[in-house]
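Shipment paperwork, digital attachment
Item: protein structure file
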Amino acid sequence: MKKLKSILIIEDEEDITEILKIAIEHSSDILLSFATNGQDGLTKANIEKPDLILLDVLMPGMSGLELMDELNKNEILKQIPVIFITSRVQRSEIQEYKKRGAIGLIEKPFAPLEIVTRIHLLLEENEQLKKLNP
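Attachment content:
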């Protein structure tokens, strides 16, 4: 039996969350959970240990970059792949996202089909890496 994959979406903009939810829900093998701010996202990541985190960079309170720093302090959570969602895609910012450990970047506005395809590829890739490095 195939294990269901889980994605934690941490995004403060309701319209972006809704677009992601609609696009991803069509994939029956993915379970979604949501957080609207960094602190709630950190709590849910600790409890749920999702297979992937989609993380908004600019949020009130704890930003996505600050949350990424917190994830990196935890040996288990730092292994969860993170894709940043942002409208800030200047070269220096992209380098900062990668430096913090993000495995990918989705630029706002985005095409929902592109996100679903990238998510599936990243989850498969991560699964293969786990098999190679148990």
